[in-house]
Amino acid sequence: MKSLFQKVPRLVLAVIGLAVFGLVRAPLEDDLREQLVAANLLLPPPGQGAFEQMSQSALMGTLGGLRSLVATYLTLNAFEHFSTKSWDDLRANYLIITNLEPRDESHWVSVIWHIGINATANMEIDTRLPAFERERRFNEYAFQAIDLAERGIAQLPESFAIRLQLAEVYREKLKDDCATARVYGEIVGLPGAPGYARRFYGYFMARCPGREREAYDYLTALYREGEAQRLPTLIKEIKNLEVKLAIPSPRRIPDGDPDRRPQKSAEKPAKVLPGGIVVP
């Protein structure tokens, strides 16, 4: 069976070649641009690094209306790399894809998920590699995902979806409660952000050393909003903080610890007489 590369029209391969050429020449143009800016012969680009601006302008100028077609092809090709666990090739594909369509949120979310979650998970279980190399690559992929998320946020400052994926990398892979709290805090208030982000911000703040008092005040304020916020995890986190901060008993919330719910007393078995008569 022919590969995807063999099936794709020659025109698409040609424009991809031009796109890659644009990326390769960008660092050279970047050096020239810096020299011209230093000599006051050119204004610095606003709000975006020279490399990113040059690579995007080169791609967009070269491909024009074919950008979406090439991005779609490269997305399918990236899925092949995912299937074969070729993480570096997958990332290289998405670097071009996100330059072609930098305002498409789904591209950023996908590459952060692939590199920050899937690639790191693969390093946790790939026994063909020595342990030290798996750990090195695990960290490399995790921080590559963070870098990609920061690039995506620079393009889409109000994206909560990119930040949710970034928070997952910090939470599940790097076990960094402080960074996780920071990202959830950035999500709170963004358009369309999920309601649970407010609680998650407090939960991870509570686990961040030095922020216990701030977390206690924040979570108790949520608790006072009413029953909708009084979920078992929120109550549990408040109870833990009450102990850590030695909150006086009269000021503690009245709820019991969700992990220590009273057990029902065992009921006496009923006595069944002949004929099916039940005697309690």
List the helices and strands and how they pair.
Elements: H1 4-7, H2 10-38, H3 50-63, H4 67-83, H5 87-100, H6 105-125, H7 131-155, H8 160-173, H9 177-187, H10 196-206, H11 212-223, H12 232-244, E1 271-273, E2 277-279
Strand content: under 5%
Helix content: 55-70%
In what order do the strands lie side by side in the largest sheet? Answer: 1-2
Q: Termini distance? A: 74 Å
* Global mean pLDDT: 82
Rg, rounded, reads 27 Å
Structure explained in plain terms:
This protein has 280 residues and is mostly helical. The chain has a domain at 189-250. It is built from 12 helices and 2 strands; from the N terminus they run ααααααααααααββ. Strands 1-2 form a two-stranded antiparallel ribbon. The longest helix has 29 residues, at 10-38. The radius of gyration is 27 Å and the shape is elongated. The model is unreliable at 1-5 and 41-54 (pLDDT under 50).
Quick description:
This protein has 280 residues and is mostly helical.
Using brief descriptors, characterize the structure shown:
single chain, 280 residues, mainly alpha, 2 strands, 2% strand, elongated, disordered N terminus
